[in-house]
Structures
1.
Amino acid sequence: MNRRPPQWVIVLALVPAVVLGAPLFALLWRLPWSDLGGALSSEAATSALGLSLTTSLAATVLCIIFGLPLAWMLSTGTGVATRVIRALCLLPIVLPPVVGGVALLLSFGRRGVIGQWLADVGIQLSFSTAGVVLAQSFVALPFFVLSVEAALRQLDVEFAEVAHVHGASPIRVFVSITLPSIAPAVAAGAILAWARALGEFGATVTFAGSLQGTTQTLPLAVYDLLERDPAEAVVLSAVLVVVAVTVLVLLRDRWFGVLRAEAPR
Amino acid sequence: MSGLASWVSVDFRRGELELDVDIADSPFAALIGPNGVGKTSALRCLAGLEATAVVRWATAPPQRIGYLPQRVMLYPAMSLADNIASSLRFVGADRKSAMSRAHELLEMVDIVDLAARRPHEVSGGQRQRAGLARAIAATPDLLLLDEPFSAIDASSRSAVRARIIEHIATSGARCIFATHDPADITAAGAETVSVSPMS
Amino acid sequence: MVSVGAGNVLGACATVDDSTFDVLAASSFTDVAEPLEALLEAEFGIDVRFSFGSSGSFREQINQGAPADVVITADTATMTRLEAAGLVEPSVALVRNELIIVTADSAAGRSVEALADLVDAHSEGDGDGDGDSSRDVIVVVCTSSAPCGAATDEMLAATGIELSPASREPNVRATLTKVLLGEADAAIVYRSDAVAHPELRAVEIGTDNVSVIGRAAVVLDDDSDNGADNALTAGEVLEVLTGERAAGLFAEAGFAAP
């Protein structure tokens, strides 16, 4: 049996492909290829690119460190508390990023609910690179948790049971058996989180501000350049797109599956 | 509820299970009965996997349990050798000694060349052999095996079974296993325990 | 003759509601827009709609056909670009807006009495906890590509003061918001913004101050959806905007005469 969809479905599927591909194509088409080197090596560009890479990677690491326990907890819980926490986790996806930025200000800003205590100790997150990482982590975490929790729920609980009977502690089970079994989902979640963090704009500009070298990541630099030097803005946009597309293409299909439990005889 | 040989009684609080026994002191006890009657549940209770079941041990409770479920459940991200070694690693053995013991057992069940393979890369029978090895690797004092030889091809079954039985017997462990095959019971010289549901 | 006819036909086919008069204005005019709107609607009996944007995007927006019958820019440079691109008729000066410092109600904010106070030995806005942050003055200004930012740069260059702002916000509104939220201690914004927010303490910059001239112009009609009707009233709208009553409204909002 041929698994491919009928032709008319394929034609329909080409519509979104074109809608998504056209902007990318236009971007590359309008690229000032001759000025590329100059534009890319400008101080604003290198600073923004470097900042974007370091902050997005830091945010991804944070998402993994805190997202794993969270996904574990959500995957085993069944009560109301679990549902509430899961809703909270998914909130940043629904929230417009700028609103997220305002929320971050209200909580972690100098006068924020938590921020004021931090200020007493001399820590200010707004206008800092740390603030950028926080804003990026905020928007990226749901993607990681979603991916990992889904994989954890799909995993057959009997693996953990066997290991438990053989003397493994819950942590040991998670680290030695569970994590390796869901490694593809963890990788996929991390890459999605990283991509989201890399492209983050609204929450960053609202919460962390925009200053070259400290908080002006690539998206913020593009926004700023758009009015001053549109050609360079196009170049930087292309860089962002190329980096993101390359990595996403590397997200192979097999990483979206989860190793299945042993089939019963 | 009735006891199981003289070792153990199980109080399955959901009131679904009753074990009737014969008294004798064989290290092997075989749970028999039609499908769905609760042989697997009984083994799970004994393994401590059912929170609502209370297991009372007439003699000392087991310090270390080896378990082989019906679906075998080899850990998917580990090689067969690592699977077998895991039982030892979980109780604190270092990697080297665990792996060497794993290789001994791989030999015993005739799957040495598959040591580096992943569970999904080998056949059901080969998985079951590895599962058996994993269960006995850490020299447990209680073995709980659910239909332990059913997937092994008929020609090799008696040989593998004999080696496993001998290994268990010489280790001094107790073994409770569920089976449909009378040959298993005979080979092990097991006490039969018929499992019936509460009416 | 033929082209006029075609223009009318296209106008008639426009999907946008022709009866709305659209004014595209820089965001610094946000607070004065409402009274201006009321004035214009009373005067002409048509529906007037103000939309706001950042000056740098005006050229592109108008090029791409954003609804605009009249455009009001915050500074001269922006209008010059529009005129050079042939997008507008010759413009008129509308208002003069000066820079001013606004401060938040924090210890550092209250300590600011003059432009020089914004430069503190530690005022880098470094938020990672080194140094006593309560004595640092956290300053935000507009980005260089925004008119207020360009004016700020000009002023600082003239005075020789080297400022290390914690952030260069995309537009003057965002700059103001940081102080309103208490995130920054001080900001350099327009006088009109200070007037719109009397709850903030304003500090004059003094003799070294620079001002920007806001200008207004009629947007040239290509085959945009603004019909012939609006071309007639646009000139009249400009007249009212430069007239006495409008001047009164601008003055109330903190603008000065050009």
2.
Amino acid sequence: MARLCNRLRELRARYDLTQEQLAQAVGVTRQTILAIEKGNYSPSVSLALRIAQVLRVPVEEAFWLEDEGEQGGA
Amino acid sequence: MRRELYGYYITRGLLILAWLGLMILLKARWEIVLFGVLFMIVLYLWLPHSGRYVIRTDKPLSPLASDERERMISLQAAAYAFAILIILLAAVVIWSGLRGQGMISLELVSTIMAIGLITQFTVSLWLHRKT
């Protein structure tokens, strides 16, 4: 079973964005951004694309699938 | 107070006044009226800051909107509550049938409805913590 991983925290830091600012930019609550960053919530395709657009990266750079137990990035 | 929420506070204030007027017309007990008014004031002040809603500036009178995670939580909580409600109602109907009772008391149905509401609230809280 693969799980959805992300590097939102790192990408936010690149643009000095807070969770609140990113949330406002993509039209969700700060709790949703927090839940995505912690890996507790998998965003819809539409939200993932909006986040990638705001962070100016391809969506696969912000989100990727990882096999359970595997460590590391994309 | 945030400027974009002025419309929200005004409409909610009017709702509270309407409820207050209705309660006065119905000659409700003053303790219930006071509790209701205080509850609504606290609720309406808290909701925009609860983190559960996105504030939409294009809808000044109803600026609070759920995002996709909040909608997912609400749907799941409603599904759990509905399942509990159906199971309990089925159990009561079968139990009444076995006992040869043709009618189910209104109190029992009210209790089942209350259990459904409590389930919805509890599951919603649990999902907010979990996701």
3.
Amino acid sequence: MPLISHSRRPPAVLVIGVLALLLLAATLLSIMIGAAGIPLPRVFGALFGYGDDPAQLAGDQLILWSARLPRIAVAMAVGALLALAGAIMQGMFRNPLADPGLVGVSSGAGLASATVIVVGDRLLAGTGLQLPFELLPVAAFFGALASTVVLHRIATHDGRTSIAIFLLGGLAIAALSNAGIGLLVFVADDQQLRDITFWLLGSLAGATWPKALALLPFLVLAVLMVPRIARGLDLLVLGEAEAFHAGVSVQRLKILSMVLVSAATGAAVAVSGVIGFVGIVVPHLIRLAVGPAHALLLPSSMLLGAALMLCADTAARTMAAPAEVPIGIITAAIGAPFFLILLLRRRAVASL
Amino acid sequence: MTALVDVTDLVVEVGAQRILTDIDLTVQAGEVVALVGPNGAGKSTLLRAITGEVAPANGRIALKGRTLADYAPAELSRHRAVLSQHTHVSFDFTVDEIVVMGVDRTRARPWVREARERVKAQCDIAHLSDRPVTRLSGGEQQRVHFARALLQLLSVPDDSKPGLFLLDEPTASLDLNHQLRMVEIVREVAKQGIGVLLVIHDLNLAGMLANRVAMMKAGRIVTIGAPHEVIRDDVMHQVFQVSDAVGIVPPAPLPFVLPQSMRLR
């Protein structure tokens, strides 16, 4: 009998422990590596405020607290939120190929953000007021929610989701959103153009403590909601009718999931732009290792998403130092082939 | 005594089309009722209406004396379990994971583990425990989902008992051995006081396991009663347009297989 047909699941404590260690290692690595390298002993020195050379200590502390740490915090939060959004979306649509970036949810968030940048800027022109940063995550959330709801309307009929219609519908939503963004780019001035381009490529370069702090409520929301939807998402894997038979309020579960996916994607897009494929790669790897049960899949995906995003961002800022490679390019370069492999393996099993 | 399920004057419409007309049906606790009839007669729709999936256009469905629509999904799941005709699982859950999915959440882990093993043995899927359900044969998958629905029913707290078991063609993709095993299990479940309503195509199996058989045609119940009262030549002719069907053994060289009991290992 082939090995693969049997699966013993590792215990949850072990899984979370290993992933937490992985995240810690990625964090230390990310602190040490950069335009100015800081060896490990000096990292601890700077973190806890001791060192032989006061000048060097002050320099290390400045780099750490004002540049690296806020960026690390944002990278971890964005990675965790995107991976979570992907995992929930896949459960909700019963489709391992779902990803907020791929099916237009991120584009919807991007379009809403770009609209706020351009239109808001126009409206405030002459008043001397600055557009509040906090408005962008809110706009991105509603953009993401609108895309998710439309996608759900398109792809789900009589409680069944067609994978082909889901992917093609997502493609259409993404194309439409991108057309809108294109239009905004066309009418934007230079400063607005720079801001919009940032969304399209995806980057963590603008990470600051306030941005990291703005993501915190979304992470808290996610951690609080995960236990409430895990059992329902497991049962939804059997089908909407079957989940209802087992006591799930399917409508409520779907609304909750859509709001959570949109909030997580919107928040991530608002601070880092459109970063694709994290939501598809991470949950897939976790499912291979620990199985598809959502109670473990969702928190594990958040941890691995955080660790992978941190590694990708470290690569983004060191590969071509002192210049930065947009992180969206790195995640797409890794994620797109991964997606293709998934697609081809599925083709072998069943037609779309 | 209030019936477990009481359906009165039920009308179900899908779009503009009337699927069920003036259905009256009861299922008592401990009783097995089989819905039989040609394709498109409305058997599955009637079952789905009683699960709560399909809302009636007219009439009333009462579960333990209360209108079905008054139950919240979570509460409903403590009073009835359902086996659908086809269940497609989209991720690699193992048999063990699937079987316990519907278990009442108040049950402690040791209870769940013990009950899971018992139900798995009963349904002959104990040897599949760690296998992903997506890689099993159709019949094996059906047994897994049957075990899951059965465990959901067995795990409900005592104050919600007896439960109702709704089965849509539970024997459809099973081999001869497992069909008979299914008959045994359904009978045993009924003996514990659970009411069973099932859709079934095989009239021999229907006769073997049901206390009452309801023959449906074109959205109505044509006749209902004990198996020998319903499965008769005149009814067969009226509903299926076949003649000389009941109790005739085919002439010599044609094999004729109808096992009526099995010797369990």
